[in-house]
Amino acid sequence: MPFSKPIAWMMIWVSAASFAGTKIEEKIGTRDHVLPHPRQLRWQQREFTAFVHFTVNTFTDAEWGDGTEDPAVFNPSELDVRQWVQVFKDAGMKMVIVTAKHHDGFCLWPSRYTEHSVKNSPWKNGKGDLLKEVSKACREAGLEFGVYISPWDRHEPTYGQSSEYNAFYMGQLTELLTQYGPLGEVWFDGAPGENSPLRKKQVYDFTMYRSLVRRLQPDACLFADDGPDCRWVGNEDGFAGETCWSMLNRSEFAPGQADPKKLNTGQIDGTDWVPAECDVSIRPGWFYHASQDDKVKTLEHLLDIYYGSVGRNGLLLLNVPPDKRGKIHETDAERLRQFRRILDETFKANLAAGADTKADNVRKNLDVYSASHLADENADTIWATDDGVTSAEIELELSGEKSFNVAMLQEYLRQGQRVKSFAVEAWLEGEWKQIAAGTTIGYKRLLRVEPVKTQKIKIRVLDAVDCPVLCEVGLFNAPNVAGNKVIQ
Ligand code: FUL
Asked: Residues of CATH 3.20.20.80 domain(s) within the chain?
């Protein structure tokens, strides 16, 4: 039902005005929705996190160490974690997740449960604690800190003897959870998969691990293939599905036993809120290899990843591995600076801000749900429709003719994720022309479109599982980087 009739708008305005001051209802719509926990909302709002793979592999030129490495190989000559954190902060990352222990079992902190750690390395004469340094540098810079601790441990002799190893792992986990201040995320890797020949008959007690994290670090988000707070996106390329629900039926999944396709798209009828985390490395490998210095991802590739992760209701977890010196390589640092420059330039001004808006349905005709909230640059105010209305249109009249090539839509996740399909139209040469379309929106949907110059756009919610609740619309003009590739 397209918008028309100014008189109807006057009536809405009059009735909305008389309800000014009304609060957003606790529950909008006719269904019970799966909702995010506040810690998950905070996680999603970070959008962009640094992943740091650093261990003996950095020095042996390997990706998966086998646990026989001599701790003496770990010896960064110019370790500078402040440089890492500065590079990450300048890139716009909000948290740093470090591989405290990768599959080789070598610990970047002096764990009292093993000799296989920095304490037997020449670095700082065995007196160093890398996690202490990074967590401190993060705190000083105002970034959050998180840890990756591989359940798979190829060094530890008790690995394969389930309860002994689980007790060992709990001991190490306790050290991580108690010695380095607040953690933003704890990352449980699913490798190697359940059926891998590399996997000994070790049964992990994830229930126990997770309850320990909840008890000692209740604000930390728990990552594993199946969540519970955030899930693996099903690939290591950094791309969420074009359709990406934050819901998942967790009972169908387990770490190391996940259907990548379903993880990529999530599940519309999922019973749990488990948004997608898109992990990818800036280089081909997760660890630094000098042979890959000329294979750092291009600016175009990183931008594609950004639009395919943050722009598809995911969080981007970008790995930037320090080199043997213990520094972020100049090439990677420069690439991140270029990347940030383009994003800053793109998102510096929302051309839809302050637009005049009209919607063909406004919930109960109340001002608190008016479409003007979509153009107010405040993600805490919303537009919503009446119960039973699952398709609707909003017209935005911009403050003048504007040129843009990126459109943004955001759902108000405190009411769950609802939109199943949408289209964006622009008023061009006297008619509405579709310039973008998609399925899910979620926290943020970014669409790269062919450059358009117009004064009017229309957002059409075509279908939703319940009445739609959106909070922001954005229009941006990205600088031309090799043609600002159109992803739809
Ligand atoms: C995988 C691991 O096997 C890789 O080495 C890397 O840590 C990646 C993030 O997860 O499962």
From this structure: 39-347
**pLDDT, position 200:** 82
Ligand 1 atom nearest the C-alpha of 64 is 5
- Best of 223, 236, 281, 282 to mutate for ligand 1, by most ligand atoms within 8 A of CB? 236
Q: Give me the pLDDT at residue 15, please.
A: 42
Could you tell me if the CB of 188 is within 6 A of ligand 1? no
Q: Would the pTM of this model clear 0.90, i.e. be above it?
A: yes
Q: In 154-277, which ranges are continuous DSSP H helix? A: 162-179, 206-216, 260-265
Residue 194 CB burial class (10 angstroms; 0-12, 13-18, ≥19): exposed
Architecture of domain 39-347: Alpha-Beta Barrel (3.20)
Query: Which of 189, 199, 287, 288 maximizes ligand 1 atoms within 8 Å of its Cβ, making it the mutation to test the pocket?
Result: 189
8 A C-beta contact, residue 109 and residue 179: yes
Q: Does domain 349-482 have CATH number 3.40.190.10?
A: no
Identify the three-state secondary structure at position 433: strand
